[in-house]
Input
Amino acid sequence: MEIVLVLHNIRSCYNVGAILRSAEGFGVSSVILSGYTPRVHDKNLLPHLREKLDKEIHKTALGAEDMLDIIDTDDIKAKILGLKAKGYQIVGLENNIKQDICQINDPKLKEKLDDKIVLFLGEEVDGISEDFYNLIDLFVEIPMKGKKESFNVSVAASIAIYAIMNL
Output
């Protein structure tokens, strides 16, 4: 299974770093950063700002940020459409939405997934914007047993990547 990870509008450098570390550890093929997600080694920033962001991302990525194929895009919709044209299935990690959604631990999930997927992660609080729903082929969620409604995005990313890679 090949997984491309999309981090769209993730605010926290620490979340980005933790996701990059997990992505590298699980063998994700590439990571796409879009929206206002902090970029690694962002040449568009002044040196002191770039250094600050890189230091914050590195704090949780611990070098994984330099081991991954990281792609930066200003047009995530076009990037997703391009990946779809190359045969990738777009999978949105969400919860509590009014769409058909498959639990990540559903034994039938394996039958629903293709060999090449894009795992799309949205904002820490609001999740994936409804503007992207029409691009997503399948929504998956992590079942919650406690009182909280969701996991931190970096934790959720790790759980989802592990679960999908081990179907």
User: Anything to note?
Assistant: Helices lie at 13-26, 47-61, 76-85, 109-112, 153-165. DSSP finds five helices and seven strands in the chain. Residues 47-61 form the longest helix (15 residues).
